Amino acid sequence: MKLKSLLPILIAIAALFALPLFIHNPYYIHLVETILIYTILLYGLDIVVGYVGQVSLGHAALFGIGSYTAGVLYFHFGWTIWGTIPASIVVTSIFGGILALPALKVIGPYLAMVTLAFGTIAQILINEMTWMTEGPLGIKIPKPELMGVPMTKAEYFWMVSAILILSLIVVDRFVKSQIGRAFEALRDSPIACDCMGVSVYRFKVIAFVISAAFAGLAGCLYAYSEQYISPNTYNNELAVLFLLGIIMGGRKSRLGAVIGAAIIVLLPKLLDDIHLFRIVASIIAIVVVVGAGMALSKKVTTPRRVAIPIAGVVGLAAFSFWLNSISDWRLSIFGFMILLVVYYLQNGIVGFAKSFYQSIFGKVKTTRGGDAEVVDDSISFISAVGNQNAGSELLKVDSILMQFGGLKALNNVDLSIKRGTIHGLIGPNGSGKSTMMNVLTGIYTPTAGNVLYAGESVVGKTSSDIALSGIARTFQNVQLFGEMTAIQNILVGLHHTFKSNMLEIALHLPRYKKEEADAYARAMALLKFVGLDDLANEEARNLPYGKQRLLEIARALALDPELLLLDEPAAGLTAPDIKELLRIIRKIRDNGITFILIEHHMDVVMSVCDTVSVLDFGQKIAEGKPAEVQADEKVIHAYLGT
Ligand code: ADP
Ligand code: MG
């Protein structure tokens, strides 16, 4: 990082550490300390909510488990903080793993319900297991000792600050590494994630465990900060508050977590303090008004862009005047304002600030990679494969039956794919082409029959294992990782090139840095190959449709596949785009990669395929050279009807 961008961070850190020297009121120090501790928890929660995209209402319970691990170990065994911190992290991580189990089965609102139940059960257990937790009486914990002397308020504050900064660095490094990319990939498209060799199952568990580790750490620090823990603290209201912190602050943002933590700590205090309330209510009102103005200004002409903020400020003045006169209503007004913020600022306060900044100063570059040294248009980055065995059988599909209830989507289909060829798979809509692709990539397990890839059966293997064994694919309905940039999409495909573990990521050890640099260079080369290098830092969902299809192919190539399955790659493409696509397909084929190509455009099929198989109602009705198949009576009949 450059010194210039580091400066504000250093100033913030210096201010944080100087705080106890200037503020002598222990109440305020304690308030800030609580914000810091909540921030650590929100860093963890953000991994599950922001990166993996799941709602967890179980984090108050995890926070409580962290506190109680420290409390119980101190109370019964006299452990010091140096033992309880690691213990809290480990114990809570285990519970995080348990919480991950339902997350593997259900998502969205159902997961929210299950995690809520987890929270309730945990709270009841803490309450009931009096022999261990002292139940509703709670546990008193003294301030931790440093070399035999109890820490002062300020010393403990510094310790929490230091741990927060460490947490920030570790979380930031995690989410920017291959692990963080795996989290985001499984949020945006679990199917594509698995088919890129990144196991959704595995990374969901990892996400919950890491997330819980931070909750446990925060819980432990909280116990010493409060010096007293009791089950009531860790209720479902707190869980909702944590979630609100992430949403209001802004997900996927370290600063957002700080802002979110500040809001949820100060919120209850605000409701008691009319002066503070007015200040914060006005700030939120400003945010809402400016936000609404911005949303409007996108639709209106330039002169009005100036008029709208002015109108907003005037309205705001009127609002604050009004606010003074009806202070009794503040609770409901506050609730209403939060509702507005959550509803209109879906990316939270930080997300809003970013887009505001961008609308004024133009787009800021957020990701690296755009300036990487780029290779030429050669495809040396794809390992040359099958050339030596060209013509031998790579994939054998042996009387596959795929039944959905009474429907036989595939009915005893055989296929034989030769190395180094482009094998076309055609047929009318609903004839079972995509189903075949899903069977080959492990998304469906066939009802009967077998698939042999390079002599080994793939039936029963997981999608990610199949992908890693050398079968890559694209999807009929494009399955990109929408919120990630083009280059990040490719980097997910390159996940298999990373060997470094979490410790190496956290410490930025040489092996990890080398892997990351290599992967960036290779991802850039792949983008260049499909002509997308200019759009490396564009979010995938913002790319034009044709480019999205090309990006999907590049991402599949990142897997270093031997067999590439393309499901209607030319669908929705313009004529020049199709030409480009054909050029790319031929180039990849020349490098020894084998294709199965599902396509509706007959000219595409005729010009590149070596062999074509035709499906109709789940059965193979013809096979042979493109010209032969095109002339076949049954094929014409299937396509044109009687
Ligand atoms: P296409 O050749 O157009 O790609 P598909 O393979 O998508 O055809 O679909 C073949 C048939 O299988 C269709 O009738 C479709 O409705 C059915 N089908 C595909 N997937 C499923 C599923 N998951 N559940 C039920 N029916 C399915
Ligand atoms: Mg299809």
UniProtKB/TrEMBL annotation:
Stored InterPro entries = AAA+_ATPase, ABC_AA/LPS_Transport, ABC_transp_permease, ABC_transporter-like_ATP-bd, BCA_ABC_TP_C, LivM-like, P-loop_NTPase
- Output the Gene Ontology terms for molecular function: ATP binding; ATP hydrolysis activity; L-isoleucine transmembrane transporter activity; L-phenylalanine transmembrane transporter activity; L-valine transmembrane transporter activity
Keywords on record: ATP-binding, Cell inner membrane, Cell membrane, Membrane, Nucleotide-binding, Transmembrane, Transmembrane helix, Transport
Segments forming domain ABC transporter: 395-642
Q: How does it sit in the membrane?
A: Multi-pass membrane protein
Protein name, UniProt field: ABC transporter
Xref: Pfam families: ABC_tran (PF00005), BCA_ABC_TP_C (PF12399), BPD_transp_2 (PF02653)
Q: Per the UniProt entry, what is one GO biological process? A: D-alanine transmembrane transport
- Example of a GO cellular component annotation carried by this entry: plasma membrane
What Gene3D superfamilies does the annotation carry? Answer: P-loop containing nucleotide triphosphate hydrolases
What is the superkingdom listed in this entry's lineage? Answer: Bacteria
Q: Which residues cross the membrane?
A: 6-23, 35-53, 73-100, 107-126, 156-175, 205-225, 255-271, 277-297, 306-323, 329-345
Location (main, coarse): membrane
